[in-house]
Design brief:
The chain is mostly helical and 128 residues long. It has a single domain (11-123), classed as Globin-like (Orthogonal Bundle), CATH 1.10.490. The protein has helices spanning 8-11, 14-30, 33-36, 44-58, 64-69, 74-77, 85-102, 106-123. Helix 2 (14-30) packs across helix 4, helix 2 packs across helix 7 (85-102) and helix 7 runs antiparallel to helix 8 (106-123). The relative contact order is 0.15. The structure holds protoporphyrin IX containing FE. Protoporphyrin IX containing FE (HEM) binds at residues 38-40, 46-47, 50-51, 54, 69, 74, 77-78, 81, 83, 87-88, 91, 116, 119-120, 123.
Length: 128
């Protein structure tokens, strides 16, 4: 039986779409030396997988993030990193280009960018 309500996750193509988004995003992050330096050099795959699980869960997909990592508490999890307004901007620019590469419907594209903008602003925890 079809589910009564389709989630955002399902509407945009489910797991393959989110995998593509993350592969594109992390290839862009690696090209930004200052941002790339914040990530665990020996665990890019792990970092990609954690963000993938989180995004999938946030947009209505499987709950694997909470199952493996616990409650998201993103602000707290970003405390070890110096998230300045400028670096949050670099992160958001990378993600917005990756979202654009998915070629989503206008509304879905807007919803994702809007979330990224709000989340990045919320995660800022340091001055320059
Ligand atoms: C939409 C905005 C963002 C979301 C949803 C997000 C989400 C996440 C998640 C879910 C993790 C994994 C946490 C864990 O389970 O341990 C993570 C890790 C991390 N984030 Fe973010 N983040 C965002 C923005 C940023 C920004 C703006 C920066 C830096 C400028 C940043 C830097 C990092 C770093 C360095 C890690 C550690 C990588 C790892 O080992 O998982 N994030 N982020």
């Amino acid at each position: 039986m079809q589910p009564a309500v389709e989630t955002f996750y399902e509407r945009v193509g489910g797991h393959p779409t989110f995998r593509r988004l993350m592969a594109d995003f992390f290839s862009r992050v690696r090209e930004q030396p200052e941002l790339a330096a914040m990530y665990p050099a020996d665990d890019w795959e792990g970092a990609e997988n954690r963000l993938l699980m989180f995004f999938e869960q946030y947009w209505g997909g499987p709950m694997a993030y909470s199952g493996t990592r616990g409650a998201p508490m993103l602000k707290m999890r970003h405390m070890p990193f110096k998230v300045t307004e400028r670096m949050a901007g670099v992160w958001a620019d990378c993600m917005n280009l990756s979202i654009a590469s998915l070629d989503l419907d206008e509304v879905d594209d807007f919803l994702m960018r809007d979330y990224v903008e709000r989340a990045c602003r919320y995660l800022i925890n340091a001055d320059e």
